[in-house]
Amino acid sequence: MLLAFTLSFLAMVYLTVVQIMPNWMANFMMGTATLDNGEFLLMSKPSQAIVVTSALMLSMFACLYLWLIVFMLSYNSETTVNNLARTPDPKSLSYRVMQKFLPLLKRIQAQTKRASSNTAAAVVSTPRNSSQTSSFGSRISSFGSQTSSFGSRTASRLISDFTSIEGTYHRYYDAVLDFPKLIFQTMSLSGYLSKGFPLPIIFFYVLPLGFNWLISFYRFQRNKPDPMLVVARVFYLFDLFFAVFAPIVMLLYSYYNFNMDRANFATREETLTPGSFDRIARLFADPIQVQMAKTSLANLQITGGEYILVKCFLNLLGIYKWKKYPHLHQDAEVSRMDQGVTHLQYLHVENDFQHSSLQYLPPDIFTEMHSLRFVRTGGASGLTEYPSLKGLHSLSTLVMSIVRGLKQLPNLDDLSGLTTLYIADAIHVHSLPSLTGLTSLKNFAIFRRNEICCNGWATGYCDLTNFQCLPRPNEPTVQCVSDRMPAEDLAVVERIDGFLCGTNITQDLEAPEPSLESTDGVCQGVLYRECYLNGTRGICYNGRMQVVHCDVFGEYEKMRRLQITRGVGDKCDPDVEAWLGCPNSTAHDE
């Protein structure tokens, strides 16, 4: 038991650290610090008040578990059992609880007071003389004192019957303390089932929970006293497991079942344009593993006031019960999501911008979605107005890709928690909104065609001969502007070494889009094959999780060459990838 309490103390210390540094702890546990610049798991960011309150609460529980250890080491078994068996102190917690919550006790007290007041009223209404009144009043006072004493003794005896180990109604007292946690644990199991948790976790949770219910019913049916507290200790060991260790066991399961080819993904980060689809690590990880790790870590984090109340109640109840039962240590289509969807955390919309572009999002779709952490709208060339981002203080990643229909980007002032901002193909946006409110920004990239990179706003000089501003059919002509990027916004980009109008892809987006010729004609579904499209050499690859087609941008070819050199990723086939440097197996063996 001392070991269990020591582990509980350490677990509370660990949970305190999780509240203060959730993202760092998640990256430390799962080894994801290098993925998506430390924002791979997108941990929740509760308010500062919640963080401080939960950290203080868990620190208090750590101290209470430490006090339990000292309590158990300081009292011998005989003294403890004798203290538990005797009538409780009227000033004790159990006495006050029973006074407050037992209707029967209240009824006895009310009847006693009513009888006393009725007798006193009768005396006042029929006095005969002063001496008789005085004498009778003395008798009434004596009777009232005896009645009060009788009520006190009755209340004490009733409390003793409930709280004493050998009490007549002690099993009901056990049920009052046991059922809240059992119900909460069963509700947790229901939540795990609805979320589709892996069978090993479900089995691991169901087995002790079933034993917990059986032991609880056994205790309720048991009439014999348990002075050695054997049944109580077995039950509360299971109780302690659910309260403290179950979330950590789930986290360990996630850790040992989480697989991510980091070396392979490193080649993507070194070769692909910052902000591109194929550089977002969480999109290429196993979604089940990611969600399992995310949920396991979220179970350790307190994100709302209601969770603080539940956690506080359950831990106080557990500590109180353990104090009452100490160890005897001498014993061996985007729908109208704005209507009712308020807890959404991830929104990823990806489209074929040529044939099925995103056309519309309600302007107020994000108004009540204060829990949003990740938003990506890809292929949104038909979108003419972007929804308001007001109030999204928890948003961590925002990607606006191929937003060719926009002339103005949304205000970013409320995105104080934003760490990643990527903008691609904003070809009609004359300037960016203020970036000074992005106090948590770590990653910034604006790439492909963007008017601000050649109209003078971002670079300080207008160059209409730049590839990004060349005239295109069915597009308005780019005009030079006199406004310039504010120095404070430029400082934000430079502070994080952001990608702003650097050397970029110099092909229009329509050119490399999959076609019958680029897919079936030259690739025929074979990855990494050498191909030629309009006289330009390329590589057959399924970028953005699309069909395998001939990509002539050059980035995927560079990425695959690096993977072959380092021996990571898919095993190379010399019959297909000799042009990429894949060694011939026969020559290699010789």
Automatic annotation (TrEMBL):
Tell me where the transmembrane regions lie: 49-73, 197-215, 235-256
Provide the alphabetized UniProt keywords: Membrane, Transmembrane, Transmembrane helix
The WLGC domain covers 519-582
- The answer to whether UniProt assigns keyword Transmembrane helix to this entry is yes
Q: What name goes with this protein? A: WLGC domain-containing protein
Please name the source species.
Phytophthora fragariae
